[in-house]
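Changelog-adjacent note: as of this version, every example in the card shows the full chain rather than a window. The one below runs 390 residues end to end.
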Amino acid sequence: MSTETRRAGLPARQTSGSAEPAVWTTELRREDDALDTLAEEWDALAARCRTATFFQASAWQRSWWRHYGHPGALLVVLVRRDGRLVGAGAFRRRGRLGGLTGLGAGLIDYTDVLLDDECADRAAAELAAALPVTRPWQFLELREVHPEAAVQKVYEHWRGSRRRFQDSLCQHLPAVPMDRLLKRLSGKSAQRSRVKLRKIAEAGVRVRPTPVEEVPEALEGLLRLHFLQWQDRGVTPEHRTERFARHLNESTAGLVATGRAAVHQFHLDGQLVAVSLLLLCPATSGLYLYGAHPVLRERLDIAGLLFSAAQDETVGAGIPVFGLLRGQEPYKQRWRPDQLRNQWLLLGPTGVAPAAAVRAGLVRGRQAAAHLLRTRFPRLKQALLARRLR
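Full-length structure tokens:
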């Protein structure tokens, strides 16, 4: 076990109505099972952090580290006030020098830390002060950061070099019944969509939520249908790997058990024709992955089928936003979603920070290359993404 604990380096602040100031401490945990031992505290903090998404749930983080992490590369930064966990971030070292990044690589749509809403600003300042990014060759790079993420407070308190770039475009819709969602469309488009939804209802598709004990079997069906669906268009290479299947099973089972995910199975004429994975948190849902049999596409509107079930689940859970996550696929654009671009944060030490400066140059070059790949060589982009996940 490798743990460093220290008293807060920031000036003590008298809390209102309290005789004694709060005692702030920080910890750096480097043992490979740190996320497992912290799971209960971690999820309790996530429940007190309004910006926390399903990707910050311990079930997702622990599973990702187990299947994608490398021994000795985990760093968990903790902030406590009077012993209670009020700030936390999980990172991984990459390379032999001092690069740090978040967990998840290309599999997550939102990277963040956790901050207790009651003391988020002070917790962010303590977390920023505790990050081991102090030497010229060290830096912290975080991809896919929501503009309102908790880590934005850490960025504001950072005393060293800092840079912010644009990252992926995420899209979302209001969580409302489908008849209200249709009002976003133009007259002709709305009418066509109504006809398609009516056809789905008349076809007798049965939508079934999956209990946690049946999640592995349902996800096996999801991946099988996903491969069939994309066989002629090129499936994301990582989705075919055994480690992705294991991670998907483990993380989803944990999320479903705690109400942070729903797996929907769609049956038509007694046959399983589609499966979808919808992630859930108080602020938003997210349609993460689905598989649909190619024959279904010839009979029914798949997007309407999936969106209808996802919206029902999201509205029923009292969640205000239905997230379409990253990507601008045509089936999403048809619904005229709202758009918000994630950010790419880069933090370096105070003073001379050559590694962070070099990394910033690489980010700029990478973004220019990504634009070229996206517009000219989409298959090559998929291959490079698969390498990023290693």
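Structural remarks: The domain at 176-319 is CATH 3.40.630.30 (Aminopeptidase).
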